[in-house]
C-alpha cells in the first residue's frame, strides 16, 4: 500500500515539479558548459591577440627604427585611444575592468540591452587599449565578455528568468578561467566578488563553465609562463619565518592602502577634469610611449616585465623601487582613464615588484638567500591582491594555480590572512566594491526608483510551500509575478512550489542590502 501511495504522491503538482526541477537543473548545467566553451574560445582569442600585438610592439621598439617611424606609431596609438574613447562614450558599460558591471547585471541594477554589440566593443576596446601600451589587464574584460556570453546564451536557450544570473556568473567565472587557466579561482571570484554568497547552483555552474574554459585555454597555451618561475623556499626557524611574514604583511597592507587611495582618488578626479578627450588621450599616449622607449615590457600591463624579474631579476634595490613606482603611477593613469581593461594584472605586477624589493632588502641583511627572492615575490603577489581586491580565497588559489608552486600556498594563507586583518584595521574596501558604489551612485542610476529581482524557489527553502499572502518580506518588497510552466500566476492566489520563478520589486536603494537575504529565502545554502 505504501508503494502505491508513493506513486500517487508523485502525481501531485508538487511531486511532478520536484522531478521536473531536477531535469531543469541538468539542462542548466549543460548550458553552463556551453557558456564555458564559448567564453573560453573568445577569451583565448582575446588573450592570443594581446600576446601577438604586444610581441610585435616589443619587436618594434627593440629594433630601434628611424625617428619618423616613432612619429607614425605615436599618431597611430593616439588615434586608437581616441577611437576606444568614442566606443566608451557610446557604450559606458564597456569601460574599466567589467567586474562591477557584471555584479550590477546579476543584482538587477543593469540590463544588457545590446549584449552582442557591447561584447564586440569590449573585445576590440580592451585589445586596442593594451596594445597601445596602457597598463591594463586582460582579466576584467574577459570576465565581462563571459557575462555577455551568458546573457546571450540565456536568451538563445530561453533559460528561466531566475536562472539567468547563474549563467551570467558562470560566464564571468569562465572568463577569468580562460584568462589565467585557473578554473578553481574563477569559481571563487564569483563567490567573493560578484555574487558574494555561496549559492550551490551558482557554484556548480561556474565551476563547470570554468573547467571547460580553462581546458580551452590550456589547449591554446600549453606552456604557462608562470610555471617557468623557479621557487626556492628559505631555510628559516619558525620564529624568524613568522616575524618575516608579519613584517611582509604590514608592508603590503600599508602599500595597499596607499595604492587603493591614490587609484580611487585619481579616477574620481580624472572624470571631473574638463579637458577634451583628445588632450587626455594625448598625454596618456605620451607617457606610455616614453616608458616604452625606456622599458617596453613595463607597458601593456607589465606582466612580461614581472616574469622577467621573477626568472632573472635585478639585484639593484633602488632600481627596482624606481621601476615599481613608475609602473604604479602609470597604472593609476591608465585605470583612471576608464578605457576597457582590468586591474588584476597591474596589481599583481605591483605586488610582485614590492615582494622583490622586500626580498632584496632581506638578502642584504642576510635573512634569506638570493634564490629565495621569487618565493617572497609570489607570496607578495597573493597578499597584495588580498589587500586591493579583498578576496583572500581567490588571491591565494589563483597564485597557486597559475604558478603550480604549492610550497607558497601555506605562506600565502598566513601572509594573506594577516594582510586581510591589517587592511580591516586600515578600513580598506575592495577596489571593485568602491567602483561599484561609484557606479550605482552616478546620476544614471538614480533615475529609477524601483528595481525587480528574479529568484527561483528551491526545495526546502523559506518560500517553498508558502502562500504569497503569508510571506514576511522586508519593507516595501512586493512579489509582482510568479511564473510557472510558461504561465504567469496571480501572486495573491498562489502557493509557491520548487521551480517557481518569482519576481520581487523593491526600492532601488535597497537592492544591494536585500539581494542576499531575498535570494536566501528562495534558495538553500
Automatic annotation (TrEMBL):
Transmembrane regions listed in the UniProt entry: 28-54, 66-88, 167-191, 203-223, 244-266, 278-296, 317-338, 344-363, 375-399, 405-423
Localization of this protein: Membrane
Membrane topology: Multi-pass membrane protein
Matches recorded under PROSITE patterns: RCK_C
One Gene Ontology biological process: potassium ion transport
Domain of life: Bacteria
Keyword tags: Chloride, Ion transport, Membrane, Transmembrane, Transmembrane helix, Transport
RCK C-terminal domain span: 440-520
Transmembrane helix listed as a keyword: yes
Primary localisation category: membrane
InterPro entries named in the record: Cl-channel_core (IPR014743), ClC (IPR001807), RCK_C (IPR006037), RCK_C_sf (IPR036721)
Tagged with keyword Membrane: yes
GO cellular component labels: plasma membrane
Gene Ontology molecular function terms on file: monoatomic cation transmembrane transporter activity; voltage-gated chloride channel activity
Full protein name: RCK C-terminal domain-containing protein
Organism: Bacteroides stercoris CC31F
Amino acid at each position: 500500500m505504501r508503494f502505491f501511495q508513493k506513486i500517487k504522491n508523485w502525481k501531485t503538482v508538487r511531486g511532478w515539479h520536484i522531478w521536473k526541477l531536477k531535469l531543469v537543473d541538468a539542462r542548466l548545467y549543460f548550458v553552463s558548459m556551453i557558456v564555458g566553451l564559448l567564453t573560453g574560445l573568445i577569451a583565448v582569442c582575446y588573450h592570443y591577440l594581446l600576446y601577438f600585438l604586444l610581441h610585435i610592439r616589443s619587436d618594434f621598439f627593440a629594433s630601434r627604427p628611424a625617428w619618423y617611424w616613432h612619429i607614425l606609431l605615436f599618431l597611430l596609438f593616439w588615434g586608437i585611444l581616441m577611437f576606444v574613447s568614442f566606443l566608451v562614450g557610446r557604450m559606458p558599460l564597456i569601460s574599466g575592468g567589467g567586474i562591477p558591471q557584471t555584479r550590477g547585471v546579476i543584482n538587477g541594477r543593469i540590463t544588457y540591452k545590446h549584449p552582442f554589440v557591447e561584447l564586440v566593443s569590449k573585445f576590440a576596446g580592451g585589445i586596442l587599449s593594451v596594445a597601445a601600451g596602457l597598463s591594463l589587464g586582460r582579466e576584467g574584460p574577459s570576465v565581462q565578455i563571459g557575462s555577455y556570453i551568458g546573457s546571450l546564451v540565456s536568451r538563445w536557450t530561453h533559460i528561466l528568468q531566475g536562472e539567468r544570473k547563474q549563467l551570467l556568473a558562470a560566464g564571468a567565472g569562465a572568463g577569468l578561467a580562460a584568462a589565467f587557466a585557473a578554473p578553481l579561482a574563477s569559481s571563487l571570484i564569483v563567490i567573493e566578488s560578484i555574487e558574494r554568497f555561496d549559492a550551490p547552483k551558482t557554484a556548480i555552474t561556474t565551476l563547470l563553465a570554468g573547467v571547460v574554459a580553462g581546458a580551452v585555454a590550456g589547449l591554446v597555451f600549453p606552456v604557462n609562463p608562470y610555471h617557468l618561475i623557479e621557487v626556492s623556499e628559505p631555510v628559516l626557524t619558525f620564529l624568524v619565518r613568522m616575524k618575516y611574514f608579519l613584517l611582509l604583511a604590514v608592508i603590503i597592507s600599508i602599500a595597499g592602502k596607499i595604492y587603493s587611495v591614490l587609484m580611487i582618488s585619481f579616477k574620481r578626479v580624472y572624470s571631473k577634469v574638463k579637458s577634451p578627450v583628445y588632450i587626455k588621450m594625448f598625454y596618456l599616449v605620451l607617457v606610455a610611449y616614453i616608458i616604452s622607449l625606456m622599458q617596453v615590457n613595463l607597458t601593456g600591463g607589465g606582466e612580461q616585465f614581472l616574469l622577467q624579474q621573477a626568472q632573472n631579476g635585478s639585484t639593484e634595490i633602488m632600481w627596482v623601487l624606481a621601476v615599481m613606482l613608475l609602473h604604479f603611477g602609470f597604472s593609476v593613469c591608465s585605470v583612471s582613464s576608464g578605457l576597457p581593461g582590468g586591474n588584476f594584472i597591474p596589481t599583481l605586477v605591483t605586488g610582485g615588484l614590492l615582494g622583490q624589493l622586500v626580498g632584496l632588502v632581506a638578502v642584504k641583511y642576510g635573512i634569506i638567500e638570493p634564490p629565495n627572492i621569487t618565493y617572497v615575490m609570489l607570496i607578495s603577489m597573493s597578499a597584495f591582491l588580498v589587500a586591493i581586491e579583498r578576496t583572500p580565497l581567490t588571491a591565494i588559489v589563483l597564485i597557486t594555480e597559475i604558478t603550480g608552486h604549492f610550497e607558497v600556498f601555506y605562506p600565502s594563507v598566513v601572509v594573506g590572512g594577516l594582510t586581510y586583518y591589517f587592511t580591516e584595521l586600515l578600513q580598506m574596501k575592495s577596489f571593485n566594491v568602491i567602483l561599484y558604489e561609484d557606479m550605482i551612485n552616478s546620476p544614471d542610476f538614480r533615475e529609477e526608483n524601483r528595481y525587480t529581482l528574479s529568484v527561483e524557489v528551491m526545495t526546502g527553502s523559506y518560500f517553498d510551500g508558502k502562500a504569497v499572502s503569508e510571506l514576511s518580506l522586508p519593507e516595501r518588497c512586493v512579489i509582482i509575478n510568479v511564473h510557472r510552466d510558461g504561465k504567469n500566476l496571480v501572486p495573491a492566489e498562489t502557493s509557491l512550489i520548487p521551480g517557481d520563478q518569482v519576481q520581487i520589486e523593491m526600492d532601488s536603494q535597497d537592492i544591494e542590502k536585500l539581494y542576499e537575504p531575498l535570494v536566501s529565502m528562495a534558495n538553500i545554502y
